[in-house]
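This week, think about what follows.
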Amino acid sequence: MTAIRITLASALASLLVAFPLHAQDKAAKKDAAGFSKQDQQALTRLAQADMAEIAAGKLAQQKAASPEVKKYGEHMVQEHTKMLQDGSQLAQRKGVTPPKETDNKHQAAMKKLEGLSGEEFDRQYMAQMVKDHEEVLQLAERTAKGTKDAELKAHLEKGAPHVKEHLERARKIKASLGKK
């Protein structure tokens, strides 16, 4: 009889210990399953944009004629590396596989930049930075308004001021290059 009580008590204790773990697993699955297709696509597109900014920023450090453009490229590498890491961590928590490379549009823009140098590179790179940051800002703002996921919304709202700063700085540099 005592053996039955001990076995019953052990089984009950095991259930009590396992239940919170099961509840956490269920919550994690619900989180990933509850993440909308639009949210998944937005995270993927943002990651691809971050990767493109990093690659183009590295190229700017090598090919730019203007010290200001080189410095901007360095800033893009630093900022977008951090943004990519944060976005990838969020994607993994939500069950979304982060992309391994940029999309075709960014690859084509990069190929074009690779063929340029000096002042022509500077003008094209800064024009690309303005265009890319305008698109990312629109995507982030639209997604933040439409998402039901609080964590994604917070991530986008945290990144938006950085993207705005990048855009404004790119516009100023682009304008200064046009005057030369």
The two ends are 94 Å apart (CA to CA). Residues 1-34 form one domain. DSSP finds six helices and no strands in the chain.
